[in-house]
Amino acid sequence: MKKLPALLLAGVAVLAVGAAALVWRLNLRDETAIAAGPPPAASAEQVARGAYLARAGNCMTCHTTRGGTPYAGGLGIDTPFGTVYSSNLTPDEATGLGRWTPDHFWRAMHNGRAADGRLLYPAFPYPNYTQVTRADSDALYAYLRSLPATARPNTPHALRWPFSTQPALAVWRALYFSPGVYETDTAQSAEWNRGAYLVRGLGHCAACHTARNVLGATDDRLDLAGGLIPMQNWYAPSLTSDTEAGLAGWDTPHIVSLLKTGVSPRGSTIGPMAEVVLRSTQYLSDGDLGAMAAFLKSLPPTPAEPAPRSAPPPARVATRGAKLYEQHCVQCHGDTGQGVPGAYPALAGNRAITLDPPANLVQIVLNGGFAPATAGNPRPYGMPPYALVLSDADLAAVLTHVRNAWGNRAPEVTELQVNRYRTTSRQ
């Protein structure tokens, strides 16, 4: 009788493996027609359009190593399941896209498959790119084909088993991915639809601003409602909540300015979003940025949850935090947290200060940070790092102070939280 549980477990394991194999085989069925022969000649206008779209998708950031040839791949992207390495997008025959056709490229964008039919990992955001139109896919392909060919073999992924297997990826896709293209909402304006297309598709904003489950998938029901960016310990705030980063109450020119220059009268970008502005959105047209603003302003607001009642910080923490603020922060941010317009952000009434979790605050004080150096703001003011100046207890105390001074109300930042972010931070 003691063998029965073991036999049951073995049977369940066999069924699980069989189900995974079945799903894998079903996923291997690919009915996309792939045209043979050399690709058609691209016009200069199509190549220029593709270059613009590559900026909109921020493609070069992931497909270029530091100091490496643009788009030659090899950048390691850390995930909770191991490291995925970006591929070579130059037109090299042996190691890049030289043998790919426009149909191959469309299949990768739309259905997450390589030229040989292999399933791609969603670190390449095809769950978002699937909404890209065929015309835009062809323009991107034309641009990438125009680049100088660089012979750089693709680096094998370093993923843990079973995440390293195609059957496991097939199961993930069966659960969380359905190919599709952007469908115009006829009840909305052309501008709104353009913004929605950019935000949901090439912009892949949901890849950061939507929470992920234990298998790394986003939930459409929580689209753009905020989430912790895996492996980076930055919180991408909700774009639907007025208490986080909702834009419904912003003027359109302020949103455009934020995406174009990294700063606006209502706030500034820092951390991963500063990189997005630096490498992507600053190059978009004012018309496209205005369209994105129109869409973001229209997002249905997330119902505000009652703020949790947080006890006042312990007196010793409050006293210590106030003293540290006076020593290190008051010169820039002011004795009442008022900041300096155009230079140092106000801390009083700043919703970025009271975000929960406090990951971004800890990151900024530990490692410093600047708004991006853009054409519209070439010399941004920044925050120096304090990782070697403040202990975990010091940093927790000063952040607790600013989160509970000048009308701010937020839970205490603990020493344990600071230590966790410090020891797991990846820049």
Q: State the separation between the terminal residues, measured CA to CA.
A: 54 Å
Structural class given helices, strands, pairing?
A: mainly alpha
Strand content: 5-15%
Task: List unreliable stretches of 5+ residues.
Answer: 1-26
Question: Quick check: average pLDDT?
Answer: 90
Query: How many domains comprise the coordinates?
Result: 3
Order of helices and strands: HHHEEHHHEHHHEEHEEHHHHHEEHH
Largest sheet: 3 strands, antiparallel
Radius of gyration: 24 Å
Overall shape: it is globular
Strand order of the largest sheet: 1-2-3
Enumerate how many helices there are, as a single number: 17
Helical amount: 40-55%
Total number of beta strands: 9
Please provide a written account of the structure.
This protein has 427 residues and is mostly helical. The chain has three domains: 42-176, no CATH class; 190-297, Cytochrome Bc1 Complex, Chain D, domain 2 (Orthogonal Bundle), CATH 1.10.760; 315-424, Cytochrome Bc1 Complex, Chain D, domain 2 (Orthogonal Bundle). Helices cover 41% and strands 6% of the residues. The chain has 17 helices and nine strands. The protein has helices spanning 3-28, 44-56, 59-62, 102-111, 126-129, 134-145, 166-176, 190-200, 206-209, 252-261, 272-279, 286-297, 315-328, 330-333, 359-367, 392-402, 415-424, and strands at residues 76-79, 82-85, 158-159, 227-229, 234-236, 263-264, 267-268, 369-370, 382-383. Strands 1-2-3 form a three-stranded antiparallel beta sheet, with no helix packed on it. The longest helix has 26 residues, at 3-28. The chain is globular, with a radius of gyration of 24 Å. The N and C termini lie far apart (54 Å).
